[in-house]
Amino acid sequence: MISSTQASAIDLYRSQTQASTTDNTEDTQRSKSNKVPVAETTDKLSINKVSISDAAHIAAKNPHNTSSTNYYRQFMPTYEGFSVANIAAGVANPSLESFSAGKDFSQVAEDARTSLDKNYQRLYAIGKPFSLGNARAEDVNSLLGELDRRALYAVSSNKDGLFTADEQAIARSKMSQQQGLAMGLYSGPSSEQSKFVDPYFGDNVQKYKAGIQFLEGVSNEEKAGSIEFALQRAHLQDAYERGSLEQGAIAEDFTTDHPLVLLILAARDSVKDDFQRGYSEGLITTAEDLKKQTWFEDYQDLLASAIENTQFLYLPTSTTT
Questions:
Q1: pLDDT, mean over the chain
Q2: Among the residues of the chain, which ranges form H helices?
Q3: pTM, entire model
Q4: Which burial class, exposed, middle or buried, applies to 194 when counting CB atoms under 10 A from its CB (0-12, 13-18, 19+)?
């Protein structure tokens, strides 16, 4: 039997993703957003300017066509000539930096911008101009497929103001797909769902554990700056510990020193016996969204310092320069 706390962790993941991801139909994933402008001429683009550092070349030589990468790639279809291997590899290994290795975060964002512009042009050239309003899964995956998890976060967080709101949303959708697949929750075109096997055989406690382990592997930039990361990390740990207790099992120690995660855990624990106050409303992606939650209202005054301490913990040099 699944407790309300356990169910809420899965529900949180689904509510966060459904509000920001593309819809799955038989062969397409369609967005509720409008068009993303497409470059029309090659002379407006710097198609071949993606810089590849020595570290990236080394990372690129690591085994990339692993069985897990190939397995997850089938749930991320692309057009011929495009690759989604970097995103697929990030399901089993979100720390893999096949695109962003050796680069500071601003360079990652700049190169991600160039990659997107190049792929807009490539899609246009094959008669598939990118329009988010009626984008298929192939369109989205072909556009973003070169990016690793760290680069996807650069897009989703609009690093240096280089990305449109629509681009941020579709990058977030790919990040959610990675996490969902890692947790044994299918995410992808419905036409491919029959090929998916839940590695945890419906055991939600093991899914929560997998979610924690996945999030522990993301970049320091994501840990330092993402409210979504902190919210997911806190809910998954709470659900995992409570679920293990209900199963009569000893939970592994996933104690974290992440200041914002600890604050959210404290806030959630304070309303654990109050169903109405414990309910979350809307998509929570910013500090302002977090402040609007009734379960967080007694902790609002501590939020700014928790965010600052989190940034210092994971990106100490960036907070002092």
A1: 86
A2: 4-18, 54-60, 67-73, 85-92, 105-125, 137-144, 149-156, 165-182, 204-216, 220-225, 227-246, 259-270, 287-291, 303-314
A3: 0.84
A4: exposed
pLDDT at residue 89 greater than cutoff 70: yes
Beta bridge partners of 30: 23
**What are 30-46's pLDDT values in tens digits?**
333 333 333 332 233 33
DSSP, collapsed to helix, strand or coil, labels residue 301 as helix
Residue 109 has pLDDT above 80, yes or no: yes
**DSSP type of residue 43:** G
169-185 CB burial, b ≥16 within 10 A, e <16: bbbbbbbbbbbbbbbbb
DSSP per-residue codes, 103-147 = --HHHHHHHHHHHHHHHHHHHHHTT----GGG--HHHHHHHHTT-
**Which residue has better confidence, 56 or 215?**
215
**138 pLDDT band (50/70/90 cuts)?**
very high
